[in-house]
Amino acid sequence: MDHFDIKDGVLHAEDVALPEIAAAVGTPVYVYSTATIERHARVFLDAVADVESTPEKPLVAFAVKSNPNRAVLAILTKLGLGADVVSGGELLRARAAGIPADRIVFSGVGKTADEMKLALREGIYQFNVESEPEAEMLSTVAIELGTTAPIAFRINPNVVAGTHAKISTGGSEDKFGVAYDRAMAAYARAAELPGLNVRGVAVHIGSQLTNLDPSRAAFEKVGALIADLRAAGHDIVTADLGGGLGVPYDPAKPTPPLPDVYGAMVREVTAGWNVRLLFEPGRVIVGNAGVLLSKVIRVKPGVTDPFVIVDAAMNDLMRPSLYDAYHEVRNVEPDGSRMTAHIVGPICESGDTFAKNREMDAVEADDLVTFMTAGAYGATMANTYNSRALTPEVLVSGNNWALVRERQPIESLIAADKLPPWL
């Protein structure tokens, strides 16, 4: 469910007509719905509220990489969510949004010593360590700072997620985590290292999961590993089950499992673990909460179907080019007529294509269109290819809206280039 609806013939974000935003901010622009973010966060929180846990309630740590806008993070921290971060920059963003350090988990395969120092000084809840060499580096950094780093090893369970290859993270040839059959040795080695508090297990098999069977298989392996680790003398008190729950992009495809179904599966699999469970949802909270608002530049005749050329491009929304991802495209003021077209942007690459042979609302030059379900992995992946300014972002709440990231002036992009003295 989202809060983007047609009212009086015009698509609105909550109670704000999208043409009002386009007129004030220009296009392309990302538009987020506060009500949708809040609803999806509460639905997920409710779904995992009574899963197996210690006296501490589960920690739901929002995957900052999916949407790092500080305003979005501020909404979530008020609801009690923490943050799953994968860089020092994301850690600083989370803290700037008011997320307490003791609700932050640091994941990622390539943490640097400087990032480790930052996280230790902030006092984060846990590092999800992805290799034995990383554990050794973290030990050295913690000793240097005179502190102790709480860690879980991220385990690669060799479970194929059944999602796009570029967002699958739990297979044996993926770069993430410690191989399952190396886990016992990794924990034994970490227990010998000073400055580490080895206390948890983590797993994350991929993103945009549409079937719970791979997650169940991975979680069952985690449960068996926890039992083996405790038998070997390790005090395991946390289990991070990652994120990845999918959202509906293409209305023609089956709807992914809802959070309450996911929660029921987790409740069944984790019964008796006696750990504090951690979750890292991202897309499932913000995906449907955002749209990319764009304007049609012109409609160009094609050999078969016409090309609808919009002012948004692959640098604004990379998912179709990168993953062949589907985003529904709507006319902001539809008249009921339909057309079949190729939807493309202005960048000088054939890859700058959002859809081919797409049946869609009929459009013509200067019409506004929205790319739906763009709140996750949209603005966060935007770039300045073809010297295009970074896309601005707007947050709507009821009948109010605010610019929460300005459009970068192209002059500032040019000014960042420095000429060497010999030119």
Structure characterization notes:
The chain is of the alpha/beta class. It has 2 domains: 4-32 and 287-415, Lyase, Ornithine Decarboxylase, Chain A, domain 1; 34-285, TIM Barrel, CATH 3.20.20. The chain is 28% helix and 25% strand. The protein is built from 12 helices and 21 strands. The chain has helices at 18-25, 34-47, 70-78, 88-96, 113-122, 132-145, 183-192, 213-231, 259-270, 283-286, 319-323, 410-415; strands spanning 4-7, 10-13, 16-17, 29-33, 59-63, 82-85, 104-106, 126-129, 149-156, 178-179, 196-202, 238-240, 276-279, 290-300, 307-310, 329-331, 338-344, 353-361, 368-371, 393-397, 400-405. The strands form 3 sheets. Strands 4, 14, 15, 16, 17, 18, 19, 20 and 21 form a 9-stranded mixed sheet that branches. Helix 2 (34-47) runs parallel beside helix 9 (259-270), helix 5 crosses helix 6 (132-145) and helix 8 packs parallel to helix 9 (259-270). The longest helix has 19 residues, at 213-231. InterPro entries: Ala_racemase/Decarboxylase_C (IPR009006), DAP_deCOOHase_LysA (IPR002986), De-COase2_C (IPR022643), De-COase2_N (IPR022644), De-COase2_pyr-phos_BS (IPR022653), Orn/DAP/Arg_de-COase (IPR000183), PLP-binding_barrel (IPR029066).
| Alpha plus pi helix count | 12
DSSP E strands, number: 21
State the CATH architecture of the largest domain.
Alpha-Beta Barrel
Based on CA inertia axes, which overall geometry fits?
Answer: globular
- Mind summarizing the main beta sheet? 9 strands, mixed
Structural class: alpha/beta
> Runs with pLDDT <50, length 5+?
161-172
- What is the end-to-end distance? 56 Å
At the first level of CATH, the class of the largest domain is Alpha Beta
Helix content: 25-40%
Provide the β-strand percentage band.
Answer: 15-25%
